[in-house]
UniProtKB/TrEMBL annotation:
Belongs to the CENP-L/IML3 family. Its main location: nucleus. It is found in: Chromosome, Centromere; Nucleus. One of its GO terms (cellular component) is nucleus. Signal peptide: none annotated. It comes from Rhynchosporium secalis (Barley scald fungus). This is Siroheme synthase. Pfam families: CENP-L (PF13092). Keywords: Centromere, Chromosome, Nucleus.
Amino acid sequence: MAPEIPNQVYPLYNTTFSLYRLSPLHTGSNETLSNSRLRELARQFHDILAGEVLRGVRVGLGQEDDALARVGALQTVTWRLLPEEETWSAEDETEMANDDTTMSLAACRGMIVTATYEKMAYKVILLRDERGDYTDTSMVTLRAETAGFQNFPLMLSRMPGSLREVFVNFLVETFDNRISPLQFPSRYLIDTFERYVADISMGEDGEPLDMIERSRVLRNTIKETLVVVGFDLPDGSAALKTAEINLAREDLPRMIARGKMIGRQEDTDSPFFDALATYIKGHLALDLRHEKVKILRIACGAFVLGTEGKLKLTHMAGGEDGESSRGAATRRLLNGFISHAAGSSSTT
């Protein structure tokens, strides 16, 4: 087998994930999950994929699975703790990283499971809900959890359906938890984009950036923006299903400024959506606020988010404008998804 080449990008980036909500995992003891224990879970899951049995029932994946039949034979399965992005290195993605028994779950973002085939590697990431909205890892505080349970509210999956089904069944059988798809209402997409834009418009001192700096950060981070609109028209034309609204990066700073003016007049706090809705209604006679009009997806240079529960975070090279505010904004973005999965989101 060829030597394993570590991915140079933190595993949360540059991958389109399907999102799922998880109830707490019943671990059966107060002992936290460690790499040594996760190695045993990886071995058990490998045996299942290789055609062994789960609770007396044969559940291995056969060659009749079209997606997996094209990626060759199963090579390895790893299950390890996922360090925080600030402390992660490419070597953490190698097989040897699983031998690190000093790593603590309390200092990690969650867990990552990788099933590597000859031509493709699939992964699942389970994120913890332990850090609140902190950007400084020294401010981490652990919440007291019910004895024998570990809380990973958000699961990000990059697996074909049949493989994901086997993994979900393994989690349920092993940890006696529940898993369900995580979907978002249109308003959540709008509010998420608005918060991200507001977050990257703040300086390291917590004060808003000046107009010139904010415009540069918005152009370099958000870049072009795509808003996909859907129509809830059961008796309408089948030809009218969605519409795409494309915004150039040069237009976004002006839209935000215009939206803030509209917000002061109408006592609202959604500058991007206020400006977009006003423009579209004035030029296309389409009311984005109508109950039958839905925002289905928002895509920009930083992330892509869809109501069906699809997410992609984009990695940007260090040293670019707004790197500090972008890192904090991305952390808050993920924490928002975790809170929503845990059922504590205020957005409905």
